[in-house]
Fold each of these.
Amino acid sequence: MLERTLRVTAIRSQSPKGFGGCIFTGKPIDDTGNVQDAAAYYVVKANGATLGKTLVQPGQWWKVSGEAVERLLEVNGFRVSEWQVEASSALLLRPSGEHIVSFLADNPAFERIGRVKARKLWDALGAKLFEVLDTANVDTLATVLTPESAAQVAAAWAQFGDSRTLQWLQAEGFDLELGRKVLNFFGSETPEKLQQDPYRLLSFSASWRQVDALARSHFGVAVDDPRRLQGAIEEACYRVFTAGHTTALSSTLMDYLQAVLGSQTTTFRWRNLVPTALSQGLSNGSFVVGLHGVQPFGAMVMEQQVANAVVSRLTAADQALMPPAEVEGLLHDYEAKEGIELNAEQRRAVYLASDHSFVLITGGAGVGKTTVLKALYRVYDQSGIEVVQLALAGRAAKRMQEATGRSASTIANFLRAGKELSGKVVVVVDEASMVDIVSMYRLCTLLGPDVRLVLAGDPEQLMPVGPGLVLHALIRVPAVPLGELKVIKRYGGDIAAAAISIRSGIWPSLSNDEAGAIAFIPCADTLTATGSSLIAETVLDLYRLDPENTQILSARRNGPDGVNTINSLCQAETTAGRKAVTVWSAQHDTVALTGFNLGDPVLCTRNMWDRGLQNGSLGTIVDVEDVQQPVADGEDGDAERPLAWVLWDDGIRRPVAEEMLDDLQLGYAITVHKAQGSQWPRVIVPLTGHRLLDRTLIYTAVTRAQKQVLIVGDEDAARAAVESAPRVQSRQVALDLLIRSTLEARA
């Protein structure tokens, strides 16, 4: 049995908000905080019961007791000696001060007090700092700061009142970001506001369990207190929104409330209290009750803003850009130059977009949506309209740019730039089926009322990852101009036939011939003799037949058919033993493996515009550095040291820097969501039955293939997913209803 006082140096693993336990590293210290053994290295594993409600943070002092063993561990391929402690008890001796340090450093009220000075105050005064600030003891503050800074800090602190709030929140396990938000919002009224209704903390992203425990233990809130019921409804609304809905019918709300409050008991029949709580809770502004159900207030504001943007364009005067005869002349010229002939559906879509300020252009894979856009751009150019092309994913924006010969950007990058548009401009959003209500709301706030909007996409492909529905909801409004393309022009044959069948909810008859254009290779969800996934092994065998032209698309990240499993197996069987990409680990004072080898395909998971990379960019590691030499930047010559070099899918060879590692992952297999908007000659799709599997996912995966698609796994599960209603139909939103009611109000 070991007992030590440790100062936390780093968090290795921690469950969300700290509940469920923590693994942290620490240095042994004495009662004054001096390190007793600089060479000692302790790793403490403590469960949630041992830690209680306290969040472990760097800088804290913990008195830890438990069984300890010295172990030689393999960390990134290298052996490291450390003491591992299974904590049977853990007592927080001294808070880290992170709440007060961050509050002083980040709050603009404390001018010229950065993190260094704030840390000096805490290190010098410790927990006494709270009392010093509360009493405006300038003399004590001046022992650390200049007299002028000390007076300024004391005056600024007076705006925020009693420090008990920070101490409450830290003692109850709330993170420093929440404490800072609460104090910034309520200022000196914070204690009074929390006393009136502790469930106000929910609005600052605090967890229900934390807030409810604080309300009941610290403020004595009864189980059936109206404030608790209103707080529970607010929490249910947040969970509804997190699940993708923007509104909840009464039955749905009750399901979420049961998850918050638990089942009814003989002493707490909360279902009878909900109608009153809904009525009384309207005053706090956290949710709205209307004809469309109960909505989180934020969701209602976003949907109404988008509805207003759509309706203002639908009802605008003089929307037509030119007479029909002039449009027809431009289309004839376009057809002659491109050597194509537009069909009736495509021509109608162009006419609609020419005549209306807001229009939808929809259709499945291969129906010629890009051809329509290129023809439409002739009309916009002739009318002096600037075209702004946007797509949700980086790869989709890249393909949009390549297909049209015009610049395109991701929606995220456009929003980040924050440039407002007005005048003779049209914004064209491709792959619009995946645009969520948050992105659409933010986009609409940047567009003047005279900016035209075109949304292009396929409602039978993947729905948004984020909350709400945009394209799907708009299609349900008869007043919205819709150019629907049904005739497939890009490709035909077996893949097209299967895709059409899947899109219609009919499972196609597929052979098991791995040489065919499309096939289903049955494979059980079992383990091989070596303990690996049989599905992953089968996928690997098929991948090896033509790796240069193949992309593996998985429905999920984990599981036997998931990205992580397949990537690990593919790497182990293809690039294991090749030169590894390494980086210096300051924590272990040695070279560490990064998880990448020479020849590995890699996926970029974040937009890195300064490096020419987008979220979804794919490449291959073509060179690994022996010694990390600096990259010449044209000035001082040592901007950063490359670890390796990747040849990306745009044909450019770029260095991999250490700061990029967290945003790169193996790319043998990627998720279908990452693949939307892209295509490859050959696609392999592993499938098993799970909650994420539905018709739209299978259809999207199949239509990513240009020449061959091989599906591997459970055919019964795939058939059931295709024949069932897609998950998008269960998502509850109010956008279409709001557009209809807004149109009626303006009629």
Note: The mean pLDDT is 87.
Amino acid sequence: MSEPLLKIENLEISFQKEKVFAPVIHKISYELFPNEILGIVGESGSGKSVSSLAIMGLLPKNISKISNGSIVLEGVNITQFDTKAFRKIRGKQIAMIFQEPMSSLNPSMKCGAQVAEMLEQHTKLSKKQITTEVLSLFEKVKLPEPEVIFNKYPHEISGGQKQRVMIAMAIACKPQILIADEPTTALDVTVQKEIILLLKEIQQENQMSIIFISHDLALVSEIANRVMVMYKGEIVEQGTVETIFNNPKHIYTQALINSRPSLDTRLVRLPTIQDFLQEKVSKEIVTSAEREAFHKDLYAKEPLLEVKNVEKEYLSSAGLFGKKNSFKAVNDVSFKLYEGETLGLVGESGCGKSTLGNAILQLDKATAGTILYRGQDITKLEGNDLRKLRREIQIIFQDPYSSLNPRIPVGQAIMEPMQVHKLYASDKECKAKTIEILERVGLSEEHFNRYPHEFSGGQRQRIGIARTIALQPKLIVCDESVSALDISVQAQVLNLLNELKENFGFTYIFISHDLAVVKYMSDQVLVMNKGKIEEIDDADEIYANPKTEYTKKLIAAIPVKD
């Protein structure tokens, strides 16, 4: 075997906590060989990103340090490099694609200029040659109309396009090593597939090596040659994709593989990492007969919600006195939702899923059509009547951190809607009920006075759910409410949503781009494309026999573990 391009030996990284440095990465060792893709898998806090930032010399100053070991890049130990030395190799020898392109790209610079800056820094090309090279890179990463994107700001292009600009920037100087840190987490399943294929193509064309970081083992199996599994700052297992998937030895690896909803069987309860570690995994499944009986009873009732020919039109104008252009984000959508049902709403970004959800919530009024809730047209409601409706129809947001006030303790945040809607006679009663709800979502009384920043992502999502159920609503819109969570935390939250649905009789509209999760959660699935309904049917039927080409494309793009 050839010499490794990168060799990590006994690497220990420490972070400062209460003026003392404590290790978070515990003496890890691995190698990256020329022209290979190494997948690094693990949940948040496992040390994937921290160890990669160390390779780039991007660890936060003053509060972190490499306390042991070495990082050897092409025979040179780079652990003692200063900022100037790192600047010479960053982009040229080793480059990185960050998880969130919106916060990694400069919002005040046009996309073309940001990529051009890399070439100005590391090459001797003229201004004209740099422009030609940037346009060529935009073509290589399959951006539509490279000349147009060259002159656009990041906020003017889609998430998938922003990620492609980031990739163009990373490969501009043809680095030998590319670190891709969760490059597809927030992307649609089809865009995710395109990015994976693109990275593979670029890797083969440029003969570069890639470190691909993700919490999704199925996704890593589609791109990597070898896989390394990290847990609590340690490497617990590494080997070829085939070995890791077909014969995982460490219980944590087994847990990661099995915490994701299966497309074949529907478990009553998804196993979590803790279930595996404590050997408490339930294999109980929902049978077809049970599902059929539930649906027969469910659809015999009157619908809770009826959406009839709903449209949402937006107007935009080119320039100050330009002609108004209309765009239908939701176009003639009709469906029925029954009490106790979970309706999955899927489609790519921009298909109208969230716009439809907002129209139902009366957060963004529909421009045409009727929305009947318990037989009443809610599009006409105003003032006090609308306030009463707000109690009945609630939303769980995608990002719980930005939907919680950072200055208010979480107990107060949960009590607030109860007080607004005068649900209880006194604050004492509200507090008692809040503590009861915190316990229902897997938190405790001691969390009442803590602030949002003191919780993990999964805990914050539980707080978001607690705040939603505080009003005892009938209908809850879950808008991408598990998309940013690790697989095992996602399993915990999905189990919680199903448990609450059973106990309180909730009805869900479950919006997501993760089709495996939607299939697991849903009774029916509604597929949207460009504002219209492509098809609507039983979740199992849609996945087994998709009728339209668009739905077939969406399902074919789901990463599956081989």
Note: The chain has a mean pLDDT of 88.
Amino acid sequence: MKLIIIGLVVFTFFSLNLGANILVLEGLPSPSHHVLFRVVNEALAARGHNVTAIGADIDHYAVENVTYLHLDRVYESIYASGEDPINFVEMGKINPWMTLAVLTQLILKTFDGAQKSSGYQQLLNYPENFKFDLVIYDFIATPFLLGFMHKYGNPPLIGLTGYNAISMTSVILGSPYHPSLVAHHCRMESYNSFLRRVENYLLHWVDHTIRKYLVLPKIQTGLEKDFPGLPPVAQLEESARLALVNYHPVFEPSEPMLPNVIGIAGLQIQEPKRLPKDLKEIADQRSFVFFSLGTNTQPEMLGEQRIKHIVGAFRELSQFTIFWKVKGNLPLEVPPNLVIRPWFPQSDLLAHPNAKLFISHCGLLSTHEATWRAVPILGVPIILDQFMNAANSVKAGMALEYDIRNVTKDTFKSTILELITNSTYKKNALLRSKMFRDHPEKPLDRAIWWIEYVLRNPNENIFRSEALSLNIFQKHDGDIVVFLSCVVFLCLYITFKILRVIVRRIKVSSQRKKTKYE
């Protein structure tokens, strides 16, 4: 009997911890976000969980216990034929308000493409009695995939994102933040002056208003035909137990953080693997520079003239090998020291001892990898948070920022040489790397522990904030400020009235005395 009881306990433990069905909703169409999700998906699968992931970016190779459903119409919807293709180099020049408008349209186009996708229909046609024990979703993408959470019985929800702002968790967890001080993700320059802080404050409020009164109602209407009885999607996302955020104080200014906001920056960084033989042979020969504009910005977006200046600078830096991630061919002759390929094992390449510099768009994952490997950065930000990531790296003393839109051969070359020959940048990179790595556990281990914490405690949510019951006006004490302002105004008004009466009586009394003596 004791053996049977022990067996049941062991079976229950393993079914809870090693055999959960997990639904992963990768709503944001971005290869870099998928890099982060892929690491989590495979780590969960390695622990015996069954992972079903749906997204626009998927892996086509087989991994045991991981099933990918493809949102194959999303990029088609975003880059619709008949419209001008998105050029991120040009998009990065527009002001924050226009950026916010463009992003709003991208969200709605993503939703439209998702609903038309084969993967969406596949998941929609899963048996009604199919059971998921947990849902993980990219909450930066808005909740347009959370209808599946409702369809499968509202299992516990976890937010996960490759983005870094704690303030963004306010939507799902009720995190406090200060709109005038927390940089909005469309902000591209310093916001320390009073007027910049006012603009930053307004950006947060306008963003909130657009999301609540434009985006979410359209998503709600669009989902209701697929998911009968669907509650408000905002209500669904507010059931999130915790948020795994790509945050570390080495990279971002400190913000107020609830206990269920878990920083996982560096999660995608693994022990360096041996480079492919042909790449290793080149890297071993001499010092090299690695150049990548990330997964969304392609070099052709720079235009032929800019590319001519960049390649000209590389040609004159013949003492170094230059690795440049380019899909396709460059529109001019390539010098012998320039190696172009559509893909490089970025993190492994940066770990090589001959890596002297990373010319980067300063996407967050790339910034983390360069910092972890202690490689100085020449930041050439293109859009959104890349500008802030570059500025923070410059502030840390391990980087310089360069305007790639106004590139010239001589200034580009001299900036590269400054970063390589001035040892200060490397020393600061080593210091920043030390601070980034100094943790009691690996970021991936931390993420998996918290995911399985929710699996172990599916019916408990001890972290839920009372702030979720407040609207944004109340959350920022707007109602209290208005009330106290009215009280002060009323007191001043009453005081003014009393003083006015007193002054009037004094005047009347004075006139009577004057009349009496006359």
Note: Residues 1-17 have pLDDT under 50 and may be disordered.
